[in-house]
Amino acid sequence: MAPEIPTRFLCDEMLGSLCRYLRAAGYDAVFASNGDPDRDLLRQCHDEGRQLLTQDQLISEHKAAQGVAFILPRC
Fold first, then answer.
1. pLDDT of residue 24
2. Which of 11, 22, 42, 50 could form a cystine bridge with 15, CB 3.0-4.6 A?
3. pLDDT digit string, tens, across residues 10-60
């Protein structure tokens, strides 16, 4: 059986607090804080093997978002 690869996350600018909580829980989580366009965030996720966590509903319009972007509900 192959070893389990830990999930790595990229949190968009709306989820800074979640990113800090994930890091505190021991996850590999980075914060996108420089206003990069969605396509650049998705490319970074594909290049680095990360899952994009966002609240941006429009991200689902990107073909590259399938299987990579997870849209979280706004509270």
1. 96
2. 11
3. 999 999 999 999 999 999 999 998 888 999 999 999 999 999 999 999 999
User: Exposure string (b/e) for 47-59, b if CB count within 10 Å is 16 or more?
Assistant: eeebebbbebeeb
Q: Going by C-beta distance under 8 Å and a sequence separation of 6 or more, which residues neighbour residue 53?
A: 9, 10, 11, 12, 15, 18, 70, 72
Query: What residues does each domain of the chain span?
Result: 8-71
Helix (H) or strand (E) holding 43: helix 38-48
Q: Give me the pLDDT at residue 64, please.
A: 93
Give the separation between CA 29 and CA 60, rounded to whole angstroms: 21
Provide mean pLDDT across the span 56-75. 92
CA-to-CA distance for 65 and 73, rounded, in angstroms?
17
Write down how long the chain is.
75
